[in-house]
Amino acid sequence: MSPTTAAAYYPLPAMSSELPVWAYSAPGAPEAQTLPVFLAPPPPPALPAGYRMPPPPPPCPLAFRVPSTLLFQMDYRRSHSLVQFLRDEGAVPTPEEDMTREQVIRKLKKIVMDWAKQVGHEQRVPPRRVTATVLTYGSYTLGAHGPESDIDALCVGPCIATLPHHFFVVLRQILQRRPEVSGVQSVENAKVPLMRFIFSGISVDLTYAQLPVIDAVQAINSSSPQFLRKLDSRSWRSLSGVRVNEQIVQLVPDAEKFQVLLRCIKLWARRRGLHCHLLGFFAGIHLAILAAYICQKSPKATVNGLFTMFFEIFAHWHWQIPVDLHGQPSKCRLSDGCLMPIVMPCTPPELCASNMTESTFGKIREELMRGYALTKVSRLR
C-alpha cells in the first residue's frame, strides 16, 4: 500500500477500559474528539412521610358483542360436525343395510300372512277372510337405528290364532324351516312374551297381539278404539310399543332433528355405559322420550343446540316431576321405587318400565352433570 493512499489508524479515547474503540481517519484528519457522556436521569424525590400512593385504576373489561351471523355459523358448523361424527363412528346405517332391513320386514309380513291363512284353514274359516300383519316399533320406526340395532316387531293376528299354540308352536316351526332364519328362541314367561331370532343377519324381537276379529289387517288400519277395549292384558302391553311410537312421531316438531339428536344421545349413553335396561340404566324408549321432550322445548334450535340443551335441562331436572310429552300434570301413579319417572305418550298414560336402582340412578345423574360441564365449556368457546 503506497504512503499516499495508506490509511492511518489512531486510537480514540477509550470509553471503557475493557472495550477499546478504534476509529478510522485519513492522513491529515483532525484529532479525534472525546464523545460526550450521557448520564441516567436522577431518581424521583422521596415521598413525604405519611403519603400513600393512590391505587391503580381497575382494569377496564373489553366488552364487545359477537355478531349473530358468526354465532349462527358456529352453531351450524358444530351441528354439521355432530352429524359427520355419527357417520364416522358407525352410528348411521348404510343404504344397503337399510335395504336389508326392509327386505326382512317384507318377508316377515308374508310369512305371517301365510301363517294366518294356515290357521284359518285348520279352524275351518275361509282363508280369504283371515289376515295378519307385522308392525314395527322402536328405534327402527323412529328412524334412529344403528347398524347393530335389532328390529322390534309386533305380529298382529286374528282371534282364532292363540298365543301358546299358534304363535309359539306353529309360527315358530314355520320360522325354523326358513333357511335365512336361525337361533329361534321363545320367551313365553316374560311380561311381554316374544320370540327372538336372527333373520338374514339381523336380530328380530317378535311379540304378539291377538285382536278380537278375523281380519286383523283391516282392524289395525282402521285404528278403531272398539277392538282395543276388548284386548287381553298381554296383547295390550304388546301393542303399547306401537302406540307410543306413533305418538312420539306426531309430537316432535322436526323428525329429522329428532332422529339426529336421538342418535347422539344413544351414542353418548353407550359410550358412558348407560344404555342397558337389564342392568338398571336407560332403555331405548327412555332416551326417545327425553329426546322428544327437548325437541318440543326448542323447535327452532339446531342439532348442536338441542344436544347441549339435553344436558342443561336433565342435569338439573327435579326427578320428583315426571317427564311428560303432553306438557300436563301427569295422572300416572308414581310407585315408591320410581327414581326417574318418564311417562309414555299413550292413552291412558303409563310410566316406562324401569329397573333403575339408587346406584344406577346416581351414575346417570353423575354422567348428566359431566355432559353438562363439557357442553357448557364448548358454548363458551
Overview of the structural elements:
The protein is an alpha+beta fold and 381 residues long. The chain has helices spanning 68-88, 95-122, 139-142, 163-176, 216-222, 225-229, 233-251, 255-271, 284-297, 303-314, 358-380; strands at residues 8-11, 22-25, 133-137, 151-157, 181-187, 194-199, 202-210, 343-344, 350-351. The strands form 3 sheets. The protein has a 5-stranded mixed beta sheet, sandwiched between helices. The chain has a two-stranded antiparallel sheet with strand order 1-2. Strands 8-9 form a two-stranded antiparallel ribbon. Helix 8 (255-271) packs across helix 9 (284-297). The longest helix has 28 residues, at 95-122. The chain is elongated.
What fraction of the residues are assigned to beta strands by DSSP? 5-15%
Number of domains: 2
Strand order of the largest sheet: 3-4-7-6-5
The parts where pLDDT drops under 50 for at least 5 residues are 1-26
Task: Give the rounded overall mean pLDDT.
Answer: 86
Q: What is the first-to-last residue Cα distance?
A: 73 Å
Major sheet summary line: 5 strands, mixed
Give the secondary structure arrangement, pairings included.
Layout: E1 8-11, E2 22-25, H1 68-88, H2 95-122, E3 133-137, H3 139-142, E4 151-157, H4 163-176, E5 181-187, E6 194-199, E7 202-210, H5 216-222, H6 225-229, H7 233-251, H8 255-271, H9 284-297, H10 303-314, E8 343-344, E9 350-351, H11 358-380
Parallel strand pairs: 4-7
Antiparallel strand pairs: 1-2, 3-4, 5-6, 6-7, 8-9
Helix pairs in contact: 2-4, 8-9, 9-10, 10-11
